[in-house]
Design brief:
Elements lengths: L16 E8 L5 E13 L22 E11 L4 H16 L6 H9 L11
Antiparallel strand pairs: 1-2, 2-3
Helix pairs in contact: 1-2
Pfam family, one: DENN
InterPro entries: cDENN_dom, DENN_Domain_GEFs, Tripartite_DENN, uDENN_dom
GO molecular function, one term: guanyl-nucleotide exchange factor activity
Amino acid sequence: FCQPGGWQLSKERKQPTFFVVVLTDIDSERHYCSCLTFYEAEINLQGPKEIEGEEESGLIPPAEVFAPKSLVLVSRLDYPEIFRACLGLIYTVYVDSLNVSLETLIANLCSCLVPASGGSQ
């Protein structure tokens, strides 16, 4: 469900997209799946290429293709804007390689108290 258009490589980086899917379990309980899909550079899909007579420069070659990746948050609560902000925060930390442990960030997000329905956010 997190790649509704199919999983395909792209020759250019696409903008991140966000959407929500609602799944219903056997007990008719809803689960809200917030998905943030982004495209990440795939540098070397075929292994190292060796060219005769050329030395490796040590530089990372530019990406030739971009592969989709998805961050998914599943909840029984319907707070799409809050979940979008949470996934956006995780995405920013991951993409910008900030000095924050993803495990710590996710643990902090999971330990947040969620207000009762109809209350203030």
